């Protein structure tokens, strides 16, 4: 397994399981071992974030699924005013409205990756769970394209990953996490906010750039193998 593939497998698992923390909690958290999977993915690459997963596990045991479900509704769903709206446009657009210009921009980005709203997203395009799930899906599609030797498609998907992270997730994760911590009545969601912010910040500052470097090296090596040219 190449360094690129190894990194992408870790990133894919992280985004997939992180997204599960921002859907209505249920037995799946334990049945799918969501927190254990997050800890496994993060312990070697982001120890600070891995510590937050351990704290999450303890909070879930203390507070229980039903209390955490009620907290999810208060923070993210309603029917009363949301304590922490989970939509990027609330934080990115001047009018602080749902389905604003930034929502349309992120939906266009998904279309570039070949994702369809009804089949793949099942919520507003800039919902935090959707953006995390899309990162997971695009990473998986990037790996598929690399394995198939479809380098043009792979490069387009790498650009989608970088744009989603740089122009969307990383720009609103801090104010969103702050609102969760301010409004949360459970340790579970305070730790979830800490985890989300820690993961996205390291992705933005380190991991995405390393992924792009490894992808470019892999693409160059493939081209050299195809032409028989020596490296360098």
This entry's quaternary arrangement is: single chain
Structural class: mainly alpha
- Taking all Cα atoms into account, the compactness measure Rg is 18 Å
Shape: globular
Task: Describe it.
The chain has one domain: TorD-like. Helix content is 77%, strand content 0%. It has ten helices and no strands. It has helices at 3-20, 28-31, 34-42, 47-77, 88-92, 101-112, 117-121, 128-147, 151-183, 187-227. It is globular and about 65 Å long. The model has no long low-confidence stretch (mean pLDDT 91).
Features of the shown structure:
globular, mainly alpha, 10 helices, TorD-like, 232 residues
Quick overview of this protein structure:
With about 230 residues, the chain is an all-alpha fold. The protein has helices at about 5-20, 30, 35-40, 45-75, 90, 100-110, 115-120, 130-145, 150-185, 185-225.
Strand and helix layout:
Layout: H1 3-20, H2 28-31, H3 34-42, H4 47-77, H5 88-92, H6 101-112, H7 117-121, H8 128-147, H9 151-183, H10 187-227
Helix pairs in contact: 1-3, 1-8, 1-10, 3-4, 4-10, 6-9, 8-9, 9-10
């Amino acid at each position: 397994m190449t360094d690129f593939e190894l990194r992408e497998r870790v990133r894919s698992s992280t985004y997939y399981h992180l997204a599960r923390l921002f859907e209505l909690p249920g037995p799946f958290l334990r049945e799918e071992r969501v927190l254990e999977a997050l800890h496994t993915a993060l312990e070697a690459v982001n120890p600070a974030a891995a510590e937050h997963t351990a704290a999450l596990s303890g909070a879930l045991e203390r507070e229980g699924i039903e209390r955490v479900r009620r907290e999810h509704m208060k923070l993210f769903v309603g029917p009363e005013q949301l304590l922490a709206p989970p939509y990027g446009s609330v934080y990115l657009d001047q009018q602080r409205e749902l389905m604003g210009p930034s929502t349309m921009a992120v939906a266009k980005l998904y279309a570039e990756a070949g994702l369809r709203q009804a089949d793949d997203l099942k919520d507003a395009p800039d919902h935090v769970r959707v953006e995390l799930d899309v990162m997971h899906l695009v990473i998986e599609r990037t790996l598929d394209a690399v394995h198939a030797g479809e380098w043009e498609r792979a490069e387009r998907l790498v650009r989608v990953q970088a744009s989603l992270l740089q122009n969307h997730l990383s720009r609103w994760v801090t104010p969103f996490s702050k609102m969760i911590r301010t409004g949360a009545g459970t340790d579970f969601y305070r730790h979830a906010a800490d985890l989300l912010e820690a993961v996205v910040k390291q992705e933005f500052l380190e991991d995405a750039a390393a992924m792009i470097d490894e992808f470019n090296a892999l693409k160059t090596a493939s081209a050299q193998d195809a032409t028989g040219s020596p490296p360098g």
